[in-house]
Amino acid sequence: MSVNPSFEAEAEDAAEQEAGGVAEGQGVANAKPNGEETAKVAPRSSDLLYKVDESPPWSMCLLLGLQHYLTMATSSISIPFILVGLFCIEESDPARGHLVSTIIFVSGIITLLQTTFGCRLPIVQGGTASFIVPTIAIITTSYDACDALPEGMTEAERQEVWQQRMREIQGAIAVSALFQILMGFTGLIGLLIGWITPLVITPTVTLVGLSLSEVAAQKAALHWGLSGTTMVLLVLFSQYLREVGIPMLTYSRAKGFSSTRVYVFKLFPVLLAVLVSWVLCAVLTSAGVFPEGSKARSDASAGLIASSPWFRIPYPGQWGLPTVTVAGVFGMLAGVIASIIESVGDYYACARLAGAPPPPIHVVNRGIGTEGLGCLLAGIWGTGNGTTSYAENIGIIGVTKVGSRRVVQYAALFMIVFGMLGKIGALFASIPEPVVGGVFCIIFGMVAAVGLSSLQFVDLNSSRNLFVLGVSIFIGLALPKWLQSSPGAIRTGSLILDQLLTVLLQTSMFVGGFLGFLLDNTIPGTPEERGLLKWKAQMEAASSEDLGDRLSSCYDLPFGMGAVRRAPWTSHIPFSPTFTGFARRRRRSNQADP
Hints:
By secondary structure, the chain is mostly helical. Helix content is about 60%, strand content about 5%.
């Protein structure tokens, strides 16, 4: 079997680092290629500052982790704002701040679990829009509208109104999460990997970015001047000034005082762009440029800060014991399925950007299972939402060229701490929405481009491949858009089936990924034409005996790997790092039969 040359180059780079060819802490961007062949075969990882299993200095991890936190928080914070309207929580109710803190706090716990024991990729976990649509369907079909509530309700009665709704959503999320746990840890999702090809990954990941374009545009349109300034700054810092080093004075006992250059624009483009735009926003607000009520004002979320406590630890069952209904569970199951499809594509996109090999089967199994555990925790804690991989933070890796797992673990700690420090968390959540929109416009575009990069494996001169690609992406955009503008269009006679189909068909990633899966695996085409030869060579290289130890060690568990490798039975566990797949084990048993 021939191995993809890019993996050979990565293996050589790993060997050089082990031999001391690259100084500890420098990252691959500082390692200069010595041959023309290396520059040609490994362009995708040559500009990375830190790969997935490399750790920057702790001070740099703090700033990079804060950058990931800000990106994640600006996305997650929108979910509680939607839920409070559905649950009929009044503006003066401190529960609004409690919901914000809870979703941030639980996201930190889940992110730490995922990066440490799950897929071990630098991937942030957080709330997802996939669960909002079934939530809306459950609430609107089971409860009265907020304006239909009787007047003169006491504070305790109003609290019971929204907590009753929350408890049903909690139960639906927690029970439906069991399906995702089984899909992951039993290896069922891994059985589908053989049919997940470049023409399946491309529309799935690309539509993650494209389907979020409306969200980015809506936030940016709140003030195009401010969002445009943020975009310009982000492009300037991440592209034009990326090689500009800022001289800084350092001290060590061996060398004393010395000067070094720090490439702050390459490392912190998002953080710098947000801070500069935020300060500009504050100045213009003080000068009276923005009118009262404008989303561009720096004090637009002052009420959230005032109503948030200084310290509060979210705890399981804080809104009461979850309740379970059949309609709620089946409706929420659609959100779980859409989240699984999206996350599988996110794993491959994150691995490409972080300088890691394609995730082996056991990584996908363990990652999806861990996300299921995350949804279960979210349901028990009462975030009002589930959890999924964040494409926004994957885009951050593409911009900063820092794919370190340790950085995202620092971000997880920020989430946990700020989830307990209500006012500090609310402060970061008060970033003006036009600034957030400007960041999203750049980052979501980066995610879409990562999806398109998988086309390097396929023959784009093939009319068959162009058909599969074009139909998957176009219908993946058109059908959800039509359904969103035509509520109630699906009427099968079954409320549960209507909810399932509505949620699934309104999710661009699911529609595009499903069509790509169906068309690419049914329309005749040669393996070379479909890109399977290069794709499978790359997949097999990630778990082959000669390269697996060095290339896939980033997916090993943080401890106990010696005992795992010494126990032959662990190769039968779908989420074990020694798992080789059901099909391969069957082939071995067939070869052993006389």
